Automatic annotation (TrEMBL):
<protein>
    <recommendedName>
        <fullName>Heme exporter protein D</fullName>
    </recommendedName>
</protein>
<dbReference type="GO" id="GO:0017004">
    <property type="term" value="P:cytochrome complex assembly"/>
</dbReference>
<keyword id="KW-0472">Membrane</keyword>
<feature type="compositionally biased region" description="Low complexity">
    <location>
        <begin position="56"/>
        <end position="67"/>
    </location>
</feature>
<dbReference type="InterPro" id="IPR007078">
    <property type="entry name" value="Haem_export_protD_CcmD"/>
</dbReference>
<feature type="region of interest" description="Disordered">
    <location>
        <begin position="44"/>
        <end position="67"/>
    </location>
</feature>
<keyword id="KW-1003">Cell membrane</keyword>
<keyword id="KW-0997">Cell inner membrane</keyword>
<dbReference type="GO" id="GO:0005886">
    <property type="term" value="C:plasma membrane"/>
</dbReference>
<keyword id="KW-0201">Cytochrome c-type biogenesis</keyword>
<feature type="transmembrane region" description="Helical">
    <location>
        <begin position="6"/>
        <end position="29"/>
    </location>
</feature>
<dbReference type="Pfam" id="PF04995">
    <property type="entry name" value="CcmD"/>
</dbReference>
<keyword id="KW-0813">Transport</keyword>
<keyword id="KW-0812">Transmembrane</keyword>
<comment type="function">
    <text>Required for the export of heme to the periplasm for the biogenesis of c-type cytochromes.</text>
</comment>
<comment type="similarity">
    <text>Belongs to the CcmD/CycX/HelD family.</text>
</comment>
<dbReference type="GO" id="GO:0015886">
    <property type="term" value="P:heme transport"/>
</dbReference>
Length: 67
């Protein structure tokens, strides 16, 4: 089976392309898992009861304003 003088280059290019595509798929899977964990953390935080609200402090008029 004669593959020709450029077979090494062509097979190398296909191998490199397959490696890059596999890396992109792996990165997408990792990112999806990270996003799912972040979403779960946000949902857990929003399900917690809110902290008690502080009472607002009434504003004071400046001294000598004749209140």
């Amino acid at each position: 089976m004669n593959l020709g003088p450029h077979a090494g280059f062509i097979l190398g290019a296909y191998a490199f392309t397959a490696l890059v595509i596999a890396g992109l798929i792996w990165q997408a899977v990792r990112d999806r898992r990270a996003q799912a964990r972040a979403l779960a953390a946000l949902q857990a935080a929003s399900a917690a009861p809110p902290p008690p609200a502080a009472r607002p402090v009434p504003a004071r008029s400046p001294a000598g304003a004749g209140a």
